[in-house]
Amino acid sequence: MTFLKEPPHKHGTVGRSAIVLVNLGTPDAPTRSAVRRYLKEFLSDPRVVEIPRAVWWFILNLIILPFRSGQSAKKYASIWTREGSPLKVHTAAQAQQLRGALGERGHHNFTVAMAMRYGSPSLPEVLSKLKADGVERIAVLPAYPQYSGTTTGSIYDAVFDHYGTVRNIPELRFVRNYHDHEAYIRALRLSVQAHWDAHGRPDKLVLSFHGVPKRTLMLGDPYHCECLKTARLLAAALKLTPDQYIVTFQSRFGKAEWLQPYTAPTIAQLARAGVKRVDVLCPGFISDCLETLEEISMEVRHDFEQAGGREFHYIPCLNESPAWIAAMAEIAEQHMIGWPTQMPAAQHEEAKADAEIGRAAALKLGAAD
Ligand SMILES: C=CC1=C(C)c2cc3[nH]c(cc4nc(cc5[nH]c(cc1n2)c(C)c5CCC(=O)O)C(CCC(=O)O)=C4C)c(C)c3C=C
Ligand SMILES: [Fe+2]
Ligand SMILES: [Fe+2]
């Protein structure tokens, strides 16, 4: 076993802490080849597709990638912006604003970075850069409020895999979920309230979460329960009665049964049943992306209108809303407890003196400076 080369040890520096905001990832461009590369990495993850590897290799390489890459590229092209993929643009902006919000709370001796589970910037790339910058403590913040083995679990895998190749491993902390965090629910409530203050209220609020195969629920994945809890807390915060909202699951992939009810047919059925206006919120996504901007705001909107619905409102994700940035700062702060991010000057001096002693001793042992 060989480990990655450690950067030269710098005596006289104070170890920094870092928050890494990790999102799913997205293609580098809305082209067939870039989407194929992204889908291949994503769909080869055994956390995402739990089918025996040899069987899945044939299905993925001979059926899914040749057909889906071109279709998905067209969808990506319909939401692509001048700055790039919305998912990446929002995640980068959130990381930058989180840095500012934590600074306002007095945390200065730390870094905020963003990474993607698939595509770039990759976790190994970002974690290596943090090491080179002298980071000694890392809190991993997944962009998923609800835990699922398919998403959060897979981020943990990638972090563990990376540190399996590292000699000097930093202190690690992981945010597991925040589906019921008061500040997250508050940010969702404020976003819905602002939409209703500007546009009036719907006949039905649809809370649409990304689906997962039903089998994962039966095998113990807590995702379904966490989605339902988010919905219950948000409905209570908005003072909604059970008939004023519904929880659905979108983005089904493949032939197997996924969590039900499915978003698209449910919304079409609402229109057929005489519901004139629906508002759709996707609380499981903290950034707008293909699944919200194209699938919900374009495809599902079309289905609703075709089925006789009159008014379809898509309520954007939390993105860079001030309440969400504040919520992220609160969640991050709770996971940095005890870390010297607000290090007083006296401690800085003490750490420097300790480092000098260490440097002198290491030099005596023949270490390079
Ligand atoms: C194949 C199985 C999939 C599982 C399980 C799954 C779970 C899951 N995904 C998200 C969040 C996002 N998924 C996004 C895109 C996307 N998801 C799948 C498949 C599964 N997802 C595919 C194949 C794709 C790519 C697009 C396509 O070809 O349809 C995205 C958007 C990415 C973007 O670039 O904008 C997000 C975000 C969650 C939260 C989740 C389980 C809880
Ligand atoms: Fe997905
Ligand atoms: Fe449940």
Automatic annotation (TrEMBL):
Naturally occurring in which organism (per UniProt): Rugamonas aquatica
InterPro entries tied to this protein: Ferrochelatase (IPR001015), Ferrochelatase_C (IPR033644), Ferrochelatase_N (IPR033659)
Location within or outside the cell: Cytoplasm
Cross-referenced NCBIfam families: hemH (TIGR00109)
GO molecular function, one term: ferrochelatase activity
Catalyzed reaction equations: heme b + 2 H(+) = protoporphyrin IX + Fe(2+); Fe-coproporphyrin III + 2 H(+) = coproporphyrin III + Fe(2+)
Chief place of localization: cytoplasm
Name of the protein: Ferrochelatase
Pfam families reported for this sequence: Ferrochelatase
GO biological process: heme biosynthetic process
Annotated binding of Fe(2+), by residue: H210, E291
CDD domains: Ferrochelatase_C (cd00419), Ferrochelatase_N (cd03411)
Highest taxon in the source lineage: Bacteria
The entry's keywords: Cytoplasm, Heme biosynthesis, Iron, Lyase, Metal-binding, Porphyrin biosynthesis
